[in-house]
């Protein structure tokens, strides 16, 4: 599958291209960007007197910022210092716990380093610069990301740790929910995990102020990260068709890598017949799901060392059918 490059690489390419224009008058259509590992990547750019931009290329990764224009405008001065600002469409940090202080533009440390290093190649050590990064479509794109949930308002983040996007990046998803966990821990909030929005909606029907962390299928990564942070008490909420897989020891709950749970649930409830889905069991034998919640809690506590793991199970209608607190 085809690799791409990050918003950080696109921003560095745009900034470098405009620095070249300012210093030499040359409007390049490509520029070589130094990546964090010291290698170089040739990035297509468009450049004018006002600024330059690169089009983010996510390769075969289904990223919402694919094809987004990442713009940069460079003002060279004699001050020696490089200052990097966030313009239109770049989010602003409003909550503690992220890599960027509250109030700053959401341009992560590695992209900042890349932008400065690449512009410095062009302007030299003696000069300074004010570099403004902007994303014309950033506010719309941000609505499709987790940014607002972690307190980044008004646009996307300029991110990336290697400069390269690897296809189908599970890492990007895991990194996103780790950031959300960091924010909640910085606010001393209890951590509740759900697979997705439906789980969160049902949880909020019980606890109206609950803001759960959505981990998709990657409960194992979330559990390990929470334990590394010293967290010993969590809540899990969702449909037993997903969460019962945790009681089976499958911490990636994607259907492509873990079995369906209806056989396990039926056996645990002493039901000696075949079921097509766990939801079918929810509808016909809802009284037994406290036991399933207990099995989920027990397995997660045993495997990851949590002191307390509360479990709430909902059917597809959102009815609470199983609870275990321990």
UniProtKB/TrEMBL annotation:
Record-linked Pfam families: CbiD
Superkingdom, taxonomy of origin: Bacteria
The keyword Iron is assigned to this record: no
Segments forming a coiled coil: none
Catalytic activity, as annotated: Co-precorrin-5B + S-adenosyl-L-methionine = Co-precorrin-6A + S-adenosyl-L-homocysteine
Biological pathway: Cofactor biosynthesis; adenosylcobalamin biosynthesis; cob(II)yrinate a,c-diamide from sirohydrochlorin (anaerobic route): step 6/10
GO BP, sorted A to Z: anaerobic cobalamin biosynthetic process; methylation
GO molecular function list: cobalt-precorrin-5B C1-methyltransferase activity
Entry EC number(s): 2.1.1.195
Transferase keyword on record: yes
Keywords of this entry: Cobalamin biosynthesis, Methyltransferase, S-adenosyl-L-methionine, Transferase
Family to which the UniProt record says this protein belongs: Belongs to the CbiD family.
Name the record gives this protein: Cobalt-precorrin-5B C(1)-methyltransferase
């Amino acid at each position: 599958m085809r690799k791409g490059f990050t918003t950080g690489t696109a921003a560095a390419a745009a900034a470098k291209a405009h620095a070249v224009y300012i210093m030499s008058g040359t409007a390049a259509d490509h520029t070589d960007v130094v990546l964090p590992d010291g290698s170089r990547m040739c990035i297509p750019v468009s450049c004018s007197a006002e600024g330059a931009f690169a089009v983010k290329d996510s390769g075969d990764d289904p990223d919402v910022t694919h094809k987004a224009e990442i713009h940069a405008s460079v003002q060279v001065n004699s001050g020696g210092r490089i200052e990097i600002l966030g313009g239109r469409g770049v989010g602003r940090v409003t909550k503690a716990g992220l890599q960027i202080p509250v109030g700053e533009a959401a341009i992560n440390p590695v992209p900042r380093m890349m932008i400065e290093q690449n512009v410095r190649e062009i302007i030299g050590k003696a000069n300074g610069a004010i570099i403004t990064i902007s994303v014309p479509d950033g506010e719309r794109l941000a609505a499709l990301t987790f940014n607002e949930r972690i307190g980044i308002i008004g646009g996307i983040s300029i991110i990336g740790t290697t400069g390269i996007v690897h296809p189908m990046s599970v890492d990007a998803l895991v990194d996103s929910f780790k950031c959300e966990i960091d924010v909640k821990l910085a606010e001393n909030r209890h951590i509740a995990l759900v697979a997705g929005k439906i789980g969160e909606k049902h949880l909020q029907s019980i606890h109206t102020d609950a803001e759960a962390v959505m981990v998709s299928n990657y409960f194992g990564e979330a559990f390990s990260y929470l334990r590394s942070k010293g967290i010993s008490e969590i809540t899990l909420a969702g449909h037993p068709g997903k969460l019962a897989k945790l009681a089976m020891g499958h911490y990636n709950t994607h259907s492509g890598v873990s079995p369906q749970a209806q056989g396990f649930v039926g056996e645990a409830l002493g039901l000696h017949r075949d079921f097509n889905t766990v939801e079918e069991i929810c509808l016909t034998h809802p009284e037994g799901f406290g036991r399933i919640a207990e099995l989920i809690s027990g397995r997660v506590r045993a495997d990851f060392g949590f002191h307390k793991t509360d479990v709430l199970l909902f059917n597809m209608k959102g009815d609470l059918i199983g609870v275990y607190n321990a």
